[in-house]
Amino acid sequence: MPELKIAVVPVTPFQQNCSIVWDETTKRGAVIDPGGDLPRILAALEELEVTAEKIVLTHGHVDHAAGAAELAKTLNVPIEGPHEADRFLLDDLPAAGQRTGIPGTAFTPDRWLVEGDSVDIGGIVFDVLHVPGHTPGHVVFVNRDNAFAIVGDTLFQRSVGRTDFPYGDSDLLIAGIKGKLLPLGDEVTILPGHGSASTIGAERAANPFLR
């Protein structure tokens, strides 16, 4: 059986939780949301002795996606995700990079993701949930065998994702969290795009945005 391992590499001035996910048995894995600081990500892969076979994206914001194209070229691997509704954000990465100081390259993923898809990371299967609101194309990755979810900027410890963008929708985000994430079960550990990990149970009980 594959043995799921996760390492978090904080990147960009936004301290975004870029994560390396892999199977400890085979050392095959993926890089999720490489927003920047690629030398740090590459050094972590080398230290962990992990072979990244793909890059996976939760959504198109610059701090999550700006380094994806360059890293994919360096590693010669495909990019999977997010949902195609975030295409406009990926197209805008160079301009977003100028605004934020995070160099970004526009690109089209090798595979757009939709609700019901699955992503294979080193033989470990993650189900794809489409949870818009923070961005229109935001997706979440759930590995049910290990009760673990990578939730990007949807749900945080005691908070939720920003929706004060022209394309943001707070009602849609909260509906997605309540309708798709909370039903995963209280035991599920969530790794958000920023800050500390939490559990569905802890957020159900104490997250003020979900009351």
Summarize this, please?
Helix content is 26%, strand content 28%. The protein is α+β, with helices and mostly antiparallel strands and 211 residues long. The N and C termini lie far apart (39 Å).
From the N-terminal CA to the C-terminal CA, the straight-line distance is: 39 Å
Helix content: 25-40%
Q: What is the average of the pLDDT values?
A: 98
* SSE ordering: EEEHEHHEHHEEEEEEHEEH
The structural class is: alpha+beta
Radius of gyration: 16 Å
DSSP helical segment count: 7
Strand order of the largest sheet: 6-7-8-9-12-13
- Tally the beta strands: 13
How many strands, what sense, and barrel or not for the largest sheet?
6 strands, mixed
Overall 3D form: globular
Task: Bin the strand percentage.
Answer: 25-35%
Low-confidence stretches: none
Walkthrough of the structure:
Helix content is 26%, strand content 28%. Helix 1 links the parallel strand 3 (28-32) and strand 4. The chain has helices at 38-48, 62-65, 68-75, 87-91, 93-100, 170-181, 200-206; strands spanning 4-11, 16-23, 28-32, 51-56, 79-80, 118-121, 124-130, 139-143, 148-152, 155-156, 159-160, 189-192, 198-199. The chain is built from 7 helices and 13 strands. It has a 6-stranded mixed sheet. A 5-stranded mixed sheet has the order 1-2-3-4-5, covered by helices on one side. The chain is globular, with a radius of gyration of 16 Å. It is α+β, with helices and mostly antiparallel strands.
Task: Itemize the secondary structure elements and their pairings.
Elements: E1 4-11, E2 16-23, E3 28-32, H1 38-48, E4 51-56, H2 62-65, H3 68-75, E5 79-80, H4 87-91, H5 93-100, E6 118-121, E7 124-130, E8 139-143, E9 148-152, E10 155-156, E11 159-160, H6 170-181, E12 189-192, E13 198-199, H7 200-206
Parallel strand pairs: 3-4, 4-5, 9-12
Antiparallel strand pairs: 1-2, 2-3, 6-7, 7-8, 8-9, 10-11, 12-13
